[in-house]
Specification:
Length: 202
């Protein structure tokens, strides 16, 4: 069974449900990006990019109608959580079992190579177990529920700096994600619109 994508969760009784980026603009400053790929070297759709390489993708941005930005993306470390990690969260959309299963906390990094300095892949990242095709549920949660190995960077903005984020993904029954997926329909992760990022093995 494939669970819903990007369910929004709130802490029970709280009035907000902000992502880590919205909840707190603090955190380490993005580091300067060096040795980046050429922005014209776009990664072909359907490619599984090795964990030690950057994918180069285009994403729509808000700088103007039809405008796009070019980003470099790379998956980071995966940390396995406990089933009780999300027990205090209330699902605000998606199915009732969205937060039931094992949470996986997956770092990823992106660099704006060209385009809007505010371009971000936050709404376009999900996870998949490539063997089974299971996509689990990618959750937007308050900052205190993100438990990635590396901290997220502070307020992003600017080109050629390395932004770090944390993807929170819940998978059922012992299924373990091995790739992040950029954009497209995550149920069609081998399809025409998806680029896959191999998660480094611990």
């Amino acid at each position: 069974m494939t669970l819903g994508l990007a369910a929004l969760l709130l802490v029970s009784g709280c009035s907000g449900g902000l992502s880590a980026r919205e909840e707190s603009l603090g955190g380490p400053s993005p580091a300067p990006a060096t040795g980046m790929p050429d922005p014209s070297a776009l990664t072909p759709a359907g490619t599984a990019v090795p964990s030690d390489e950057w994918a180069v993708v285009r994403i729509a941005d808000d700088s103007g109608e039809g405008a796009t930005s070019t980003l470099a993306l790379k998956a980071g470390l995966l940390r396995v959580g406990d089933a009780d990690d999300l027990k205090d969260l209330k699902v605000m959309n998606g199915t009732s079992d969205t937060a039931v299963g094992t949470p996986y906390y997956i770092n990823y990094a992106w660099v704006v190579l060209e385009g809007s300095e505010n371009a971000s892949p936050l709404q376009s990242i999900s996870a998949v177990d490539s063997a089974s095709g299971e996509t689990g549920s990618t959750l937007l949660v308050p900052a205190e529920y993100e438990k990635c190995s590396d901290p997220v960077t502070g307020q992003f903005g600017g080109t050629n700096v390395v932004n770090v984020e944390c993807s929170v993904d819940v998978f059922p029954g012992g299924v373990v994600p091995d790739r992040l997926v950029f954009d497209g329909d995550p149920a069609d992760y081998k399809g025409t619109s998806a680029v896959q990022l191999a998660i480094p093995k611990a």
